[in-house]
Model the fold of this input.
Amino acid sequence: VQLVESGGGSVQSGGSLRLSCAGSGFTFSSTPMSWARQRPGKGLEWVSGIYGVGVYGDDNTRYADSVKGRFTISRDIDANTLYMEMNSLKPEDTAVYYCAIVRERLWDYAIWGQGTQVTVSS
Done:
């Protein structure tokens, strides 16, 4: 099982980025996954999650209040890739972002990627 994130970078406040997480070695469509982040000097924070296909129908995504309305999690099953579109970025979004395979709860992390740095300047 492997997860490889990409798409991080430096943007100005109000800008956008799209993170990608390429997965291999597991059944992508049925595996619940999440994005989490670690801000400088802070602990790990769950950001967003997506349940497996067929779980909760179209309502299969969840977001932390801090990113709701700005971030969108999605996946391309054919490409085995998880995405997170991040809009209206704020300096407080600066963090290392990780994708993860999770267990039943979206913040119960099982397998991690290596992380990708996002830096938002004011």
Q: What stands out?
A: The longest strand covers residues 17-24.
